[in-house]
């Protein structure tokens, strides 16, 4: 198909889509209740945006993931809890929009434009085969069909998300536009969460309140904070861009601090060290200045909030210190249970190490006398609080090896990028995103990441962004035969402040 034919086909498809969406909106307003009609109209508008600007459509999808609560611990009306709309006869709104984006991407990118993806499709096919093997293993293990079906979506939907992200975020412009939307969504959500927390309406954890229990949004907040720091350290941010990043970074930092999640505190430290390691000397000096500025702004606000908070200043400081010390307390309840849970799961896996237990499976519970009388039937044996063991349990050794290979291959590509292109203008963008590896390590060691749909979407998103950015830079290096210290012929302003094509 020629370029002219492809353009004509897209225009015809767009005209037909607008006509159809307009008719659907009119019918909904005429025959449905107002709330349902408004929800449908918003969905139709989002679909229309996605058809003409796929990167904006993907931004809408991940903004939904940030704003919609992935845990059931919130109290509607008291906490900032936004439930995923679930119209009768349809999947939840986020799943429906994901499926729509997958179909749109397939028809537009594969059938109409016939554009080759920046990442190999063989990896998607291989992982789909691993999922199929996990299903067969679970079926042979006699696990209930309902558990098999529910569990399989935890792997199929992230695979679709990978396909969508890899084919939409395939240019500097698309990545820059998407990240601007995503950063704004994270900053607004963090500010709202802090406002609820300051009003004493945060999420309940043990005997006190916290900003958030949702590890997916905390992962996103961490990476957007790293990204803001990396871009500000370039010194190229001016005017509105500079204000946008600074004003957005402050609520992100506050939300992460007052979430009181130990793994995310550790992730901030490890990710910050990676960002420092991958930055040049000038950027490191700016990091110090911004860190001092952040402390100058954050400390008085934190003290003020603590003084008027539920526990007072000394109580909040003691609470933060207590959370840090529990890292090393082997007798602390959750630490003890997670350690024993991992041990008993490992014993189950060693009985059939290659196949694992299969999709829909459950591991042996921890004897109740070892975990303070927690009854075995009340323990969540469908998950294990170790991401690596969880993958091994559900997808067997092939699934674990594939995920490990994907992570190490991404680090290998990053190493080649740091070595061969020290002057790349996209380097701050890549460094800010790649710092997520510091967040992933404690998350995988302490939680079943892929058992939460939103966490798996976020993981896929950042993995694709890193790999696609590195692929774009390597492609540009191959075309020009040099590291990219010169501007490209077609110039547009990217999020990093550098001129890119």
UniProtKB/TrEMBL annotation:
- Where does this polypeptide localize? Membrane
What is the membrane topology noted in the UniProt record heading this document? Multi-pass membrane protein
Which keywords are on file for this protein? Membrane, Transmembrane, Transmembrane helix
* Domain O-antigen ligase-related: from-to ranges: 248-404
Transmembrane spans: 12-32, 44-69, 89-107, 119-135, 155-172, 179-198, 218-235, 242-259, 265-283, 290-309, 389-408, 429-450, 456-474
Q: What is its main location?
A: membrane
Example GO CC term: the record gives: membrane
Q: What is this protein called?
A: O-antigen ligase-related domain-containing protein
Q: Which organism is it from?
A: Desulfocurvibacter africanus subsp. africanus str. Walvis Bay
């Amino acid at each position: 198909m020629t370029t002219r034919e492809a353009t004509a086909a897209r225009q015809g498809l767009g005209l037909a889509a607008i006509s159809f969406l307009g008719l659907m909106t009119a019918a909904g307003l005429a025959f449905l209740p107002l709330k349902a009609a408004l929800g449908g109209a918003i969905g139709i508008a989002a679909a229309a945006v996605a058809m003409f600007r796929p990167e904006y459509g993907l931004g809408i999808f991940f903004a939904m993931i940030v704003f919609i609560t992935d845990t059931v611990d919130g109290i509607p009306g008291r906490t900032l809890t936004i439930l995923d709309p679930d119209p009768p006869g349809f999947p939840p709104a986020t799943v429906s929009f994901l499926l729509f984006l997958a179909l749109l991407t397939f028809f537009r990118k594969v059938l109409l434009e016939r554009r080759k993806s920046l990442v190999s499709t063989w990896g998607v096919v291989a992982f789909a085969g691993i999922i199929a093997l996990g299903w067969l293993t679970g079926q042979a293990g006699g696990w209930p069909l309902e558990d098999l079906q529910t569990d399989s979506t935890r792997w199929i939907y992230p695979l679709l998300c990978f396909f969508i992200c890899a084919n939409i975020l395939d240019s500097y412009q698309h990545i820059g536009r998407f990240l601007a939307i995503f950063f704004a969504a994270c900053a607004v959500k963090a500010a709202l969460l802090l406002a609820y927390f300051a009003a004493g309406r945060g999420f309940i954890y043990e005997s006190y309140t916290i900003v958030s229990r949702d590890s997916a949004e905390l992962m996103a907040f961490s990476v957007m904070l790293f990204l803001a720091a990396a871009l500000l350290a370039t010194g190229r941010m001016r005017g509105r861009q500079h204000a946008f990043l600074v004003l957005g970074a402050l609520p992100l930092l506050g939300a992460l601090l007052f979430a009181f999640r130990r793994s995310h505190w550790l992730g901030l430290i490890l990710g910050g060290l990676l960002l420092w390691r991958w930055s040049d000397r000038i950027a490191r000096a700016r990091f110090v200045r911004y860190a001092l500025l952040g402390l100058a702004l954050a400390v008085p606000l934190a003290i003020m909030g603590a003084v008027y908070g539920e526990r007072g200043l000394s109580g909040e400081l003691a609470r933060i210190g207590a959370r840090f010390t529990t890292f090393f307390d082997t007798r602390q309840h959750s630490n003890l249970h997670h350690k024993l849970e991992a041990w008993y799961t490992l014993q189950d896996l060693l009985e059939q190490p290659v196949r694992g237990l299969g999709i829909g499976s459950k591991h042996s519970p921890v004897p109740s006398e070892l975990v303070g009388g927690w009854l075995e039937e009340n323990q969540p044996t469908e998950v294990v609080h170790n991401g690596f063991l969880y993958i091994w349990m559900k997808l067997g050794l092939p699934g674990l090896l594939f995920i490990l290979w994907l992570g190490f291959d991404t680090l290998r590509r990053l190493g080649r990028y740091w070595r061969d292109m020290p002057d790349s203008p996209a380097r701050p963008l890549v460094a800010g995103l790649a710092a997520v590896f510091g967040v992933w390590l404690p998350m995988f060691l302490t939680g079943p990441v892929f058992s939460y749909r939103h966490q798996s979407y976020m993981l896929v998103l950042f993995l694709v962004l890193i790999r696609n950015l590195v692929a774009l830079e390597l492609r540009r290096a191959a075309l020009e035969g040099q590291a990219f210290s010169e501007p490209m012929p077609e110039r547009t302003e990217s999020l990093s402040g550098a001129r890119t094509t």
